[in-house]
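Appendix B, record 7
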Amino acid sequence: MVVEVKFDSKVLSILEDKIQLIRTAKGAIYLVGPIRLPVHLYGETVEFKWYCWLNCDEVTEDFEKIILKLASVNLAELQQSSVLAYGDFEYGDDAIIRMHSICHTGDIFGSKRCDCGFQLKQSMKMIKEHGIGALFYLANHEGRGIGLFSKALAYILQENGYDTVDANQALGFVDDSRNYSDAIQVLKALRRKPVTLITNNPKKLDALKNSGLPVLGREPLWGDVSEFNEKYLETKINRSGHMKDDDTCCND
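Structure tokens (predicted):
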């Protein structure tokens, strides 16, 4: 059910102050935030600043037009990306960031078939302990960009001897179709100073460097190895080019 919305000037002024227009080659990104978000993290409450963004073909600084269309678009059936920022992320020195791909099974259900849930919480912990940073939670990256349903099919193939790369390719996908251009646009809108990237994936590091962003380096993020994900982690290194830094990843 769609209800006709009419904003009074007070409501609109509150919302407008939290919206930023980022022009892109395909239209616009509308970035909303910051919003206070207290998060339960390893037994303590940590307060992050939350941002969310929406891709749109229409480019306008009349944000009322965009807001009025939301109820009819049914965004609940789509995915939107967001950011958790900590400390003085906009202006502080020496920030660390994580570009984290959405993983329904690992992040929500705590699946041990991958290390995504561990990486999500551990990177948030690293950012908090470091004092300045941000976690970019990226929609449309499920299964390295193949989507949840296709990922389910790939899991069946993996249970029958395929590794992650072979399973994706057998379904007609490339190994990794993720794109970081929108996240980089948002990062540029939030911060211009150098960042350190939390990642094992050289493709993420290259994407930031090739965009012209000042990148100081990277922090590795391995852990939570088990009998359920050891082959998955080995495939990341041996076939997808992820950087192995120490023996915390996989046993040779």
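Remarks on this record: The chain has a mean pLDDT of 87. The beta strands are 19-24, 27-41, 44-56, 81-86, 95-101, 133-138, 195-198, 215-219.
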